[in-house]
Backbone:
């Protein structure tokens, strides 16, 4: 392609996505606008948080929407639907609201979290292009996005559709911000770059340490690690080498993934994840939350280290307790 052809391709993409946003804007004159207003009132009236979920590209967009909501005064976090089916449903409370995203409305991975919301009467808001889909029919409030042309010339890669989902999520966050009267001063509290950044909570202030820290050394039997994990109650255990450095972590997910093996004969070294996520003592709670909410592999707990040695653990529940999540 010549430089002019490359530039023309870029402009076609932007024009196509702009048309999608125009179609979304126009849809607010109809049922989308009415549903959106109901969604804002529903979310504003709950005592809990927004649980955002979605698979694939919708999940990536959902992570950003959750972050935007949280940073503008609406407690929210992303729950991966696959992880939800393996224990993370317990993170969703009866006073929360679920925001489920699926362009087709037929993402099989969402079945568990949708069923859970129906069983426990947790409000369910859907972002989808098909109100007649499984997700659209189950939702208490279905925000149906107009079906438009993808910027991808083959009509396959989510492009225009993800831009529309993102824009609708931003609109939701800002509408909630304005409804709550969220001020510039409030905004600074969630952003360490502001003048109030020094007053934000650090993980060292909320972490669990000492006898509460789930910790074993390399070579520990998996059965012994399970006892430690159960005793401490965080769903994971840190693995340190002989010098005390953090070299791995074993989670309940690692146990599930290895259930077909003879766990009684294994050491933690055989099943642990060797690239554990960790934070320093002076890490802001908001930064820890952002790390936990990573779209590719969300975490419910992070180990706190000093000189690469684990000295504490901070759990999602700790962030919820202080109002960060």
Residues:
């Amino acid at each position: 392609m010549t430089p002019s052809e490359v530039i023309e391709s870029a402009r076609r993409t932007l024009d196509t996505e702009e048309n999608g946003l125009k179609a979304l804007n126009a849809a607010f004159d109809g049922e989308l606008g009415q549903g959106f207003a109901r969604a804002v009132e529903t979310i504003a009236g709950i005592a809990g948080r927004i649980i955002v979920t979605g698979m694939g590209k919708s999940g990536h967009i959902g992570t950003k929407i959750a972050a935007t909501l949280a940073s503008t005064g609406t407690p929210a976090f992303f729950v991966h639907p696959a992880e939800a089916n393996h224990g993370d449903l317990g993170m969703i409370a009866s006073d929360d609201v679920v925001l489920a995203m699926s362009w087709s409305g037929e993402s099989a991975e969402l079945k568990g979290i949708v069923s859970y919301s129906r069983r426990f009467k947790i409000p369910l808001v859907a972002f989808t292009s098909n109100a007649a889909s499984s997700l659209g029919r189950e939702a208490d409030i279905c925000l149906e996005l107009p079906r438009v042309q993808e910027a991808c010339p083959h009509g396959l890669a989510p492009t225009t559709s993800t831009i529309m989902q993102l824009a609708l999520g931003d609109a939701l966050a800002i509408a909630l911000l304005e409804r709550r009267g969220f001020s510039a001063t409030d905004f600074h509290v969630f952003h360490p770059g502001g003048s109030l950044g020094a007053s934000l909570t650090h993980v060292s202030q909320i972490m669990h340490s000492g006898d509460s820290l789930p910790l074993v050394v390399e070579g520990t039997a998996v059965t012994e690690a399970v006892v430690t994990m159960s005793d401490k109650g965080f769903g994971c255990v840190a693995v340190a080498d002989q010098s005390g450095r953090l070299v791995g972590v074993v989670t309940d997910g690692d146990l599930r993934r290895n259930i077909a093996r003879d766990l009684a004969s294994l050491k933690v070294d055989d099943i642990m994840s060797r690239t554990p996520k960790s934070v320093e003592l002076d890490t802001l709670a908001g930064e820890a939350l952002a790390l936990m909410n990573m779209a590719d592999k969300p975490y419910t707990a992070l180990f706190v280290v000093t000189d690469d040695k684990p000295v504490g653990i901070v759990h999602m529940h700790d962030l919820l307790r202080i109002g960060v999540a």
The first helix runs from residue 3 to 27. Residues 193-199 have pLDDT under 50 and may be disordered.
